[in-house]
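Lab notebook, bench 4. Still working through the backlog of constructs that have no structural model yet. Next entry is a single chain of 412 residues. Request: give me the structure tokens for it.
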Amino acid sequence: MQTKLEIDPDRLLSNLRCLATFGAHLTGVHRPTFSPQDMAARAWLMDRMREARLEPELDGIGNILGRAPHARRRLLVGSHSDSQNHAGWLDGALGVVFALEIALAIAKLGDPDVAVEPVDWADEEAHFASFLGSRSAIGELSEAEIDQSRCATTGTPLRQALASAGLEGRPRFRIDPSCYLGYLEAHIEQGDYLDAHDLSLGVVSSIVGIVQYRLSFRGQRNHAGTTRMAIRKDAGAAAVALLHRIHERFRAIAAERTVWTVGSIRLEPGQVSIIPDLAEVMLQVRDADDAVLARLDSALRDMVAEAGAASRCEIGLQVESRTNPQSMDARLQKALELSAEQASPGRVMRMPSGAGHDAQILAQVMPAGMLFVPSIGGISHHWDENTRDEDIVLGCQALAGACARLLWGDMR
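Model written out:
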């Protein structure tokens, strides 16, 4: 007989809304990593973990883990509570509060042999470095990288931010994969597929790989009114021409769910009456298939070489960062799908994640799975981000059901 974990919908929604008061901004939140608002939210979460009879630990990179040291069968469950600048109230926070709610349900059940240990990873949103907290927990974050990292918005060194947040000198904990049956993370979809297709829940099959490129164009600065077009070395014009070609070529060779984004274009000197001698472009490419990413990479390098040979400007290409696609564990997917179908029959689908998540980091060392709830209109990274209360509650019930199946070994 399957053990059932009874969540409290009112407590769940109340805790989510209470967390959203830390750094409240319009209908969303502004809670950048290590800010006073972020650290106050983490202190509040630690208090809630104590209510679940857990022993919360805050480590030297800002991670929080609610430990249940005497349990024999454990799941690691969580997400992140930091936010993008002036963004939504559910991105990350939903998964942390789901984990807390399930831990509270287990505490009420009173079975000391099983536990969900809630975790709140630091800086998933990469204010300082991508997946800072989860990479630290699996041993991928070096002291040298901490020394070199700065806030992308303010330029504050990471060491300084850690000291200001009261984390200086604290040890960083390391997750022992042998202690857990796996890692589960719930999240808003952040896209519109579930919402547009009237689906309730998404079981994540894989998480996309992300490659970020820096394209540089070097020309010659000169007067915008007196320099003939025939002799110009216009870095800005060279960038626009190549970006147009990239867009057309990628459309022809991309897969169904491939996406690419030009998120930053910088010109120097950036004056309307001066021909720019430098253009820098940040291009991001995402897909869940390594072969697709390799195909796009090869095409991009060919286009850069061809444009460089034909242009009067010098064109360079550099990979700034890369995360590989990551499949989710088959057994955890099954547990999530069984529970999701029980919670909402016929309104569940397996789907890839187009966004990066801490689950792809944990999947490198232990079984990992993810569950999505719909995002209204597909809006995320904006204060209008929202999910219907009934979908939030349904998602937590489905995640709790999957936890019960895994903890008590009933996969029916």
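Notes after review: The CA atoms of residues 81 and 93 lie 5 Å apart. The longest helix spans residues 290-310. Flag for follow-up if needed.
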